[in-house]
Amino acid sequence: MIVRRVPPKATRAGGFRRLGQYVIAPVVPGSAPAPESGVDALGSYIADQARHADRVEWTRVTNCQAATVRGAISEIDATQALNTRSKADPNYHLVIAFPPGETPTREQIEDIEDTLVRGLGLGDHQRISALHNDKAHLHLHVAINLIHPETFKAAKIFRDHTTLAQLAAGLEVKHGLERTSHEIPNDRTGRTPEAAKTMETHTAQEPFVGWVRRVAGDALIAAGAGEGGWKSLHEAAARYGLEIRPRGAGLVIGKAGEPALMMKASDLDRSLAFKRLVDRFGAFEPAAADARRIAPEAEYVRTVPPEKREDQTLWSRYAEQRDRALHDRGLAIADINTADRRYRDAVSAHYAAKFAEIKRLKLTMGIDPRIRYDALKREQANVLCRHREATTAKRETARAAHVILSWPDWLRRHAEMGDAAAVNALRFMATKQERFTDTLVRNPASAAKTVTALGVKPKMSRNGDATYRLPDGGAVVDKKDGLTMPSLSRAAAILVLEMARDRAEGTPLAVDGDATQKRALLDAAVQGRFDVRFADAAMEAERDRRVRELDEEQGYTEPDRRRQTLAMFIANRNAWPAPGDTTFYRPLAETDAGDATLVATIQLRGVDVAVWRQGDETLVQDISGQPDAIAYTLLPGDRADVAAMRSEEPYGLDIETAKPVERGRDTDMEID
């Protein structure tokens, strides 16, 4: 469970009404930002949320007289208006996120919310909360009014990260939830800033704080504890391209030459706090010239570490596209800036001439020159304002035309397009432990693909998991070691079987789900007549029995069953061809002639099949019950006459009772 506060600057614009709409807008279709809120990124996202009414599972109003969410928002707005002294943000936005696949009950989630809010000292304050399911993980948004509903005083919240971390750790134990590292600060080191964690999460780049701790931390701590004074500390920093300098009431470690890139020295170790160093070394002394001349042994560079790049070919493709986008964007922005400066110079010259004309004439048709001056200034300001807005729009258009993706986002985009290498790279890069413990069907990993039959595309997570949300409320997660169904439905069971069948290539499916999930898969396999087998003997026997009963009920014969199996296989191959396979699959026909190359012999639902390649077509032949079929005498890649194959007609034997037929020496051969 991850608990964090959304930075206040993201909740300030628009007041509580905007924050409340963000939290609950999904269940209020057609809602939009308040007109007085202005246009910003959050407002745009709220408007987008309002078009999706299915992502909120439930909402809750606490400590309000109003019974509805809309009424609660208006009531909280009125409460905040009664406090006219506080200039701070009166809203507190708390997010509680659970690991993918973890679904606590509503009672548990409400207890977690109540405990965290009480721990912050806001138990009596008004709030609304909503549980969202639009991600692979459940997450609760809690919007809290910091203005007390009775005293109208604004609550002051300090160091809430530590409080939330400690409470969350206890709640995980209380409710039996998955344990998560909450980075509770200790007496020696500070916590990693939120901005650094966000950077690492979204870009996979190592943040400056992490690099300093990993590379230069030991040397700086040793210099701070030594007897060399400020000179020794400056020299230790210079060896890593760093500098120590005062800032405000403290001390920071920054990259030399980049004043904006820095971290608090006490975040590296408490022994480097400014007061402790001053007590040990005396008043601060700037770095001497000798320290500034030291050649650095290592320097921080903003890039993705090599250990997060499994596939160097992919990284080269990404780097090439990123550099080209940076270059093209830079040229476009430079042209816009040049045109902007040229226009501003022209406007300045134009109005300078008008001002000079007024000054030269002294009197202008009986109008006081000061009035003319003021009118011209307003006119010039309006012209420049309109130009500034137009230039800003041009810059945004240029940035949108040359999008610069981070490494994880680039991988996610290519993974959603079906790039298996990108999926593997995402999963390799994920540093967290696999969170799923309830894998339903274990299968070899494969690329995420578009689910054409159900009209659903996957949403890729940063660790390579693909989440499919289906129209009937079901959900399927495709992770590294298999498939899961966090939300059970008929469409979800069908999708699991389709994906598992496509990857298994005739091998039995290993199912580890609970009894309900196994029953759903069995029902879908029987009703859809899926050509799959289960590794679990009881499940396979049940599937076979029910399929036979269904065949008898519908008058299906063994030839019907074989023909349907071949038809399903051919349709599947034509709908979702394997990478590099551009041939068209069809049954072997009476009119076929010439030579064909054997690709493989496989078994589908008890039907023995030979797959032949002829030109740009793949011919599928039923060889059930034919121990002397030509395909069994050949190896993949061998050629045979199609006319001789046509003379082989499947025997009218009961496939299940006939003598088993050896599948040949190419059992593990993949069809490509």
From TrEMBL:
It comes from the Bacteria. InterPro entries: Endonuclease_MobA/VirD2, LPD7, TraI/MobA_relaxases, TraI_M. Residues 195-287 form the TraI-like middle domain. Pfam families: LPD7 (PF18821), Relaxase (PF03432), TraI_middle (PF22863). Residues 656-672 have a biased composition (Basic and acidic residues). Residues 651-672 are annotated as: Disordered. Residues 45-177 form the MobA/VirD2-like nuclease domain. Residues 456-545 form the Large polyvalent protein-associated domain. NCBIfam families: TraI_MobP_relax. This is Relaxase/mobilization nuclease. It comes from Acidocella aminolytica 101 = DSM 11237.
